[in-house]
Amino acid sequence: MSASNSPKYDAKTEGIYPTVARKIGKLLAAALRLDRKADEPVIATDETNAGGQALPTYGVGGDGVDAPVDMTEVRHPDGRMTRYPPPERWEDWVEWDSKAWPRKVPRRYTLVPTICFNCESGCGLLAYVDKTTYEIRKFEGNPSHPGSRGRNCAKGPATHNQIYDPERILYPLERVGARGEGKWKRVSWEEALEDIAAKMRASRQRRRDGIMYHVGRPGEDHYTNRCITAWGVDGHNSHTNICSAGARAGYSFWTGSDRPSPDHAEARTILLISSHLETGHYFNPHAQRIIEGKKKGAKIITFDPRLSNTASRSDVWLPTWPGSEATVLLAIANHLIQRKTYDREFLRRWVNWAAFLAEAPGLPNMPELPTGTGSFEDFEACLASLYAEFTFERAAVESQVPIERIIEAAEHVERAGSRLATHTWRSASIGNLGGWQVSRCLLFLNVLTGSVGTRGGTSMNSWNKFVPKPFAQPPALDAWNELHLPHEWPLAFFEMSFLLPHFLAEGRGDVDVYFTRVYNPMWINPDGFMWLEALRDEEKMKCHVALTPTWNESAWFADYVLPMGHAGERHDLMSQETHAGQWIGFRQPVRRVAMERAGKAVKFTHEANPGEVWEEAEFWVELSWRMDPEGDLGIRRWFESPHVAEGEAPRPITQDEYWAWVFEHSVPGLPEAAAAEGLSALAYMRKYGCFEVVRENYVPYEAEVVAELKGEEGKPLVPDEAGLVRRGGEGSPVGVLIDGVPRVGFETPSRKLEFFSPTMRDWGWREREYVLPWTLESHVSPANIDRQRGEMLLLPNFRLPTLIHTRSANAKWLYEISHANPVWMHPSDAARIGVSRGELVKVETEIGYFVDKVYVTEGIKPGIIAMSHHLGRWRLADDMGGNPGMTAKASLSEDGEGGHRLNILEHGRAWSSFDPDTSRIWWKDVGVHQNLTHGVHPDPVSGAHCWLQKAVSVTRAGPKDAHGDVWVDTRRSMAVYRQWRELTRSAVDHSPDGTRRPYWLKRPLKPVKAAFALPEEPWGR
Amino acid sequence: MSELPSSAEAALARGRLYGVLARLLLRGLDADTLGQLRALDGWLLEAPDSAPDLDELAAAHHRVFQLELHPYAGVFTSLEARAGARDAELLAHFGRAGFRPRLDDVGADHLGVALACASFLSAALGEALEDGRPAVAAQLGRQLAALLDEGVLAHLPALVAAGEELRARDGAAGVALWVRALEAALELAAEHRHGLRLRLELPPARGPASLAGAKPPALDAPDTDLRAIVDYLLCPARAGLLLTRTDIAGLGRRHDLPRGFGARATTLLNLLRAAAEFGALAPVLDSLGELAARRRLTMVGWAERLELGRAIAPWLVALDTLAVTASAMGEGASWAEHALALDEQAPR
User: Which superkingdom is the protein from (chain B) (predicted)?
Assistant: First the structure.
């Protein structure tokens, strides 16, 4: 083409900056030199994908791959929207393979719902299982789940890391060298089952307290407890007294229920004692509802000496000195009482004020009270008199918080009325000597405002959690294990598990078969070197079986390490009090379910899981069967299938049979909901993974008992003098008369809210400070921390939202987010000590010391140092016992006289594995194991380990100190233990009726009444 | 200009340049496009002979185009500030041109798709010229001009201005490359449009009509809360600029204010709320006004260099309005209290 026959297209660049025109002219010339590839279409036409390639068909088996799908939309209250695959498409779902990008490679998935196992919340997960390979591609949220509503925190999707952790234990292992030597051999499940079952059978034939199941987070409801009950042993050993015993005790003495269930979403004021918004006990479900509440105008008050993210998002932050929380709460209570802005009618109807007026006067430390004629008005006068000393001024002095903030908090509480949502769980309740009074004083505010169980108020867990009954319940056990609940702690919530090594050292007994289940007592408990000594002692700890999905420090000292599955690898049933409703969630082995959907038969879940990873639900059945193969111990019958025809030999029950019965017979509304979709109840639960039992459940204590007794002909309700109502006048009370109407009431002996606790009085705690909501001096009160001498308060137990205790050291995503636990220190303290950020400090406790980096921040109160409690995992071998990127390689040494030393040989590092990400580990600091240096502090009432520690000295580390060093003297450990044991008031001395423990108080597995009798030869007497 | 090729060849060459830019915007840099850039005398490359880290550039591409700068006409020129809001108009252009792209993973109003269409049309124009069909060529030229007006020049100056601000705050090589690609697209399209105007006697490119009717929120209106302000500031067709995550973060850091995390709307709302709560609203709004002034300066510079005065004029008006509005907001303490109070009421 010549220029002459072209239209007027020659570049004319007038007006365009000349250099631009020249540049483009040169570019055009250069572009003509490009090869023909430059002329290929930029965007493909219909025949190919966006990468210009023909659509591959791998994993695609039919038409309709590109058909648009109406996604399930969930609109969140804050305006955001999330879209999920609709449940009707879950069995066959196609997505592009993200790793193949930019090619569009379709992958065909079956989506299987399950329940997260990475904390206690029980959030819904949806596993994407590849239909071609049966590999799990990812976990996302389950939009059908009433608690989590499709949303998850970081820990949920990180389940994928745990399942594909290169270091996970895939096969049963049996120790072959000495305990702790680190020599193992692979055994079959059959070999492990036979050997362990034989030991259990031998123990059970000799005694009822030789088998111990030490459980961390149960993560399920009723199944394992049923198994232990069937064994007929007092074998359940909770972790609650390093977690929640303090809060449980305080709530129980008020209500009989041991956990709160605040209705955050509907609250007007939300009062949190801890960093609950970001790291709370039911973190994700509660956090989203706290946000909802805040969006609707709720005010948030947070007590925390640390500027947590929760504190930073609160309307009122009260950085209270630990141990002063109850004083501040009672100052708020006093504000309501003196101004008479409390809910009089609620108090009159539901508080045991009459018992108080009749029985409290004259008790130790109780002042002269204006009891008058015993009227409610007299009780009001007593309240005003009793609590007048709790002024804002006093609260400000004790808490070291500006008085205006306390007043502002009180005004928010006052304005809340019946919409006051409160919560404390770990934090102050588990931190302080007498911490149980924190939850008691906190619930006092709910009682005063009449916000107990109301919309926007605070319910109790038993109202918002639904636990279905099993298909056959073994009878209560007739046994009492002295190592669980010894006579010194008759009111503990619950078993004194963290003192087991100390009890063993004192010669109180031994254990035939000790199961640690998803629990790492040597690491997570205080005084870990005492655990080391106990776990090594084959005379006292005869067989240790570690049921764990991943290596841990305690498993290293086990006889068997049995790999149990993560969230997508097991059957469990779960419910939690996440909000003012009730739901159940069904944890499932997702690969197994996917294979069964494809028509593949699977007998045991370990056939579908990676390696031979199993699940406890099937393991317990097989183990129990072998423990009693002939049925002569009466154990086997609880594990037999109910579907064996007459004349056939009994066989073990399957998971399908068990859960089918539970879902058909034990969950109201579920069979009907399933039938509406043409499904069995089991199929419904396998499809959706959850079921909403009750949408809302407010003030259930107001329900009239009469309504519950329809059909109970011949059993009239008979009230006694105290107003307690019994069926036929016999047995346990079923209600209480309120203004002449029999109502269900609470789970206390009086079935009322026990402002005055007759139980405390009757069991030796007669002083005002124990029988009423009151303050108790903490072991770390300002009077007990001599800051002039350099003493500080170590707050060792704050939580991170991205980790879960010791269990997440196999989740690369989570560790990339948080992997170190430096010592938080105020700049004024750092200046005094002479350290700056990143430098090492040596923190000396009552029993030893540790060395860690310091993080200087104004986000912590002067005089206090704080550390997250998740980090500092270690392993003793280079290539076993932990993940090199998330644990430090350590050595242990001891002097033979109680002195123990932990030295870090190598911090975290990258390593080679099938997962390329392990070679990309960029961090080294994986934290310091501080818990080893904590002396045990068992609260004499609740049994809680009071986590807060006195740091005897905090100094700049010396030249010989290395990051991660730990030293402990277990002789000092025992001395600290004995000091705290001296605080107890034994049931031997104080039981009112010759029993060990008030029968009405909860125990995870409550024995028969006869087992409550005090032992004939109590230890130490 | 002896270096200039013939018109047909120029059209073919333009088509290739548009194609290279479209590939870069849609897919990032790979070995093929890297070879093409090197063959184009190292166009856009800072060090043409060295081997760039393609992974780093891919990460930067994701960050720049997915998280910071949203290269969609709808984001800039629609009042809902939504990607895809201009799909219908762009699809109409594509249809008239006979350009039928597969749009599985990208919207029709993505800048890369418009450039791909420009590549397609330029190639067609080259063929028409080579075949001696001036009427078809003129028709294709008019289609090209219309496409460049609506799919490229209507919003690319504002996008480039935001990109240059991003580059100034984050000097990473990857970020710089992608901002240079946007600048190159603006230069190429503006120069091309200018040539078409002269040859086909077309009016100069005009700015987006939607900006003319856009109004800031009435500060004295009873329902003007912080969200209304956020909606305004995050709508380029109203505020005259694209406020990126980095811009918002910069404002927060400059004034020591928390902004939280999440979507821009969330972080900006958090930032303004914190500013109101801590009495820092006036300085924050001053900084916002400074940012608007910088964008204005940048766009005026481009207008002068590329003779884009009429195309950029509505953006300048919107930026001037933003400056006035920000100033008024900063002075109105009572307004801030009112807006804050509204914000704390029930969510919308």
Answer: Bacteria
**Mean pLDDT of all residues in A118-130:** 94
CB A778, CB A795: distance < 8 Å: no
Which residues fall within 8 angstroms of residue A94, CB to CB, at 6 or more apart? Answer: A60, A65, A106, A107, A108, A109
pLDDT of res. A81: 72
What pLDDT does A57 receive? 29
Percent helix, strand, coil in chain B, to 5, is 70, 0, 30
Same-domain pairing of B30 and B125 = yes
Q: How many domains does chain B have?
A: 2
Residues A334 and A279 in one domain: yes
Tokens of A775: 């303050």
pLDDT tens figures, A77-87: 656 677 889 99
| pLDDT tens digit sequence for B46-92 | 888 888 888 889 999 999 999 999 999 999 999 999 999 999 999 99
The CATH number of the domain holding residue B75 is: 1.10.3480.10
Phi, psi of B196 (to 5 degrees): -65, -40
> Across residues A827-850, what is the average pLDDT?
97
> Interior CA angle at B282 toward B276 and B286, to 5°?
135
Chain A residue numbers with beta carbons less than 8 Å from the beta carbon of B116 are 41-43
CA distances from B168 to B175, B176, B179, B250 (A): 10, 9, 10, 12
Q: What are phi and psi of A739, to 5 degrees?
A: 50, 40
Of B1, B11, B19, the CB nearest to A38: B19
Which neighbouring-strand residues pair with B233? none
Interface of B with A in 292-311 (CB under 8 A): 304-307
DSSP secondary-structure letter at A768?
H
Report the pLDDT value the prediction gives residue B347, as an integer from 0 to 100.
42
For B175-203, letters b (16+ CB in 10 Å) and e give bbbbbbbbbbbbbbbbbbbbbbbbbbebe
Percent of chain A exceeding pLDDT 70 equals: 94
CATH number of the domain to which A959 belongs: 2.40.40.20
Q: How confident is the model at residue A103 (pLDDT cuts 50, 70, 90)?
A: low
More reliable by pLDDT, A597 or A102? A597
Residue A695 placed within a domain: no
> Please, are residues A139 and A84 in contact by the beta-carbon 8 Å criterion?
no
List all residues of chain B from 187 to 206 with a beta carbon under 8 Å from chain A.
187-188, 190-191, 194-195, 198-199
- Cβ-defined contact of A11 to B137 (cutoff 8 Å): no
* Bond prior to A494 in cis (omega within 30° of 0): yes
Q: Flag if A37 and B32 touch (Cβ within 8 Å).
A: yes
**B156, two tokens:** 């690319």
Q: Which of A155-159, A178-182, A705-709 has the lowest mean pLDDT?
A: A705-709
Residues A847 and A764 in one domain: no
Residue type for A86, please?
P
Which three-class secondary structure string do you get for B61-108?
A: HHHHHHHHCCCEHHHHHCCCCCCCCCHHHHHHHHHHHCCCCCCCCCCC
In terms of residue numbers, what domain contains B290?
211-343
- What pLDDT band is residue A7 in, cutting at 50, 70 and 90? very low
**By C-alpha distance, which of A34, B260, A610 is closest to B272?**
B260
User: Contact, A282 vs A459, CB < 8 A?
Assistant: no
pLDDT, averaged across chain B: 89
- Please give the single-letter amino acid code of residue A910: A
Distance CA B105, CA B83 (A): 13
In DSSP notation, A715-727 reads: --EEE-TTSEEEE
> What is the average pLDDT across B224-252?
93
Question: pLDDT tens digits for A918-936?
Answer: 989 999 999 999 999 999 9
pLDDT value, residue A727:
87
